Amino acid sequence: MFLRSRRNFLQKGFLGGSVLVFTQGELFGSVSPLETIATLFQDLLPDTKNKIGANENNAVHYITLILDHSRVSDAQKKFIRNGVKWLNEEALLKHKLLYTKLSQTQRQELLKDIAKTKWGESFIFTMLGYGFEVLLGDPVYGINKNESGWKWLEHKPGLPRPKEPLL
Predict the structure, then answer these.
(1) Residue 23 forms beta bridges with which residues?
(2) Element holding 66 (H helix, E strand)
(3) Are 87 and 123 in contact (CB under 8 A)?
(4) Which of 40, 69, 86, 160 falls 20 to 30 Å from 121 in CA-CA distance?
(5) Pairing state of beta strands 26-31 and 19-23?
């Protein structure tokens, strides 16, 4: 029981705390994974006047649900966590700054660069998939606020709709 509780604490603590970033064996700095994820979603699916951006629709909250969900594989959860770490490491290698500290232009260039790598392409694809879930999922999950994604696509959801979240 203790190990299971400790494991849960460590898994959940990842997003609430900070990631220590090392370069050449020395501590460079720390950044909140949630900050990195919010910035990444702003770059992939930016907020708009139509209120259809990922962050406007609780993308970070949704990712915390995904990382806590029993039906999401441990490998998928680990990949998201590692992707956040690798993204910051790449930012350090190329610009000597954490991803969240880069200019928008630098972040876009970095995303184009990592998209040429196997891990980067998979990470961007994964995060875009979750971003589209945020934009198009049912608002009962705390996402797609005011059904903005549905309105944008002129989508009428099927019935019956969920009454409570299954996450």
Answers:
(1) 26
(2) helix 59-68
(3) yes
(4) 69
(5) antiparallel
Report yes or no: 91 and 110 within 8 Å, Cβ to Cβ: yes
Long-range contacts for 14-22 (Cβ within 8 Å, ≥24 apart)? 14/67, 14/81, 15/63, 15/64, 15/67, 19/84, 19/85, 19/88, 21/85, 21/88, 21/89, 21/92, 21/98
Residue type, 159: L
pTM of the model: 0.81
pLDDT in tens, 10-35: 445 555 455 555 555 555 567 789 99
How far apart are the C-alpha atoms of 104 and 107, rounded to whole Å?
Answer: 5
The owner of tokens 């460590």 is 10
Query: Is the Cα dihedral 98, 100, 101, 103 positive or negative?
Result: positive
The average pLDDT across 41-49 equals: 90
**C-alpha dihedral over 86, 89, 94, 100, to 10 degrees?**
90
The DSSP string of 88-131 is: HHHHHHHHSS-GGGS-HHHHHHHHHHHTTSHHHHHHHHHHHHHH
